[in-house]
Design a protein that fits this description.
By secondary structure, the chain is α/β, with parallel strands linked by helices. The chain has a single domain, classed as Ribonuclease H-like superfamily/Ribonuclease H (Nucleotidyltransferase, domain 5, 2-Layer Sandwich), CATH 3.30.420.10. The chain is built from five helices and seven strands. Helix 1 runs parallel beside helix 3 and helix 2 crosses helix 3. About 5% of the residues have low confidence. This is RNase H type-1 domain-containing protein. One of its GO terms (molecular function) is RNA-DNA hybrid ribonuclease activity. It holds the Pfam family RVT_3.
Length: about 180
């Protein structure tokens, strides 16, 4: 089951990263690219209803633009969640233009990455797709930047991201610096 209702969160509606409901997991994804070299990466984190780290990833995806990096992040994150057997996923991205195209079933301009994401979303699970403000996607952002030069699957939160994870679990959010 797929929830194709796009939830565009305005800053006055959302005050920070929000924990998913009981029984659900939240997948935050992001893409990153460098202007100088066109190198790109994607990353994401899956967290439980308490905000705890379940698994994260960073992946080097070679040469592509920022929009394609965002698309890669969605595909890689969904594939990871599916492969791990999760059945209820809230997917959050700060790339509203990519999410809009992903959820527009009538859109004929979808590339193969977005078609792959759609195929993944129609498997036997529940996926709710949301757009969130960039400042509340900072852990996925950091992982995507790491992915520019490194591919890794993370069973534990990296020490460098622990403070952000703990702050978000407590409902204390601050902007990306």
């Amino acid at each position: 089951m797929i929830n194709l209702s796009l939830r565009l969160n305005c800053e006055d509606q959302i005050t920070g990263w929000e924990k998913p409901p009981h029984g659900w997991l939240k997948l935050n994804v992001d893409g990153a690219s460098t202007i100088q070299s066109s190198k790109a990466g994607c990353g994401g984190v899956i967290r439980d209803c308490l905000g705890n780290w379940v698994v994260g990833f960073a992946k080097s995806i070679g040469d592509c633009n920022a929009s394609n990096a965002e698309e890669w992040a969605i595909v890689e994150g969904l594939q990871l969640a599916w492969d791990l057997g999760f059945k209820k996923i809230i997917l959050e991205s700060d790339a509203s233009s990519v999410v809009n195209v992903l959820l527009d079933i009538s859109c004929a301009t979808c590339n193969s990455l977005l078609l792959t994401a759609r195929d993944l979303m129609t498997l036997n699970w529940q996926v709710d797709v949301r757009v969130i403000p960039r400042e509340f996607n900072r852990i996925a952002d950091a992982l995507a930047k790491r992915g520019i030069s490194n591919s890794i699957l993370l069973d534990e939160c990296p020490t460098s991201l622990r403070a952000w994870l703990d702050q978000e679990c407590l409902g204390l959010n601050s902007p990306i610096v």
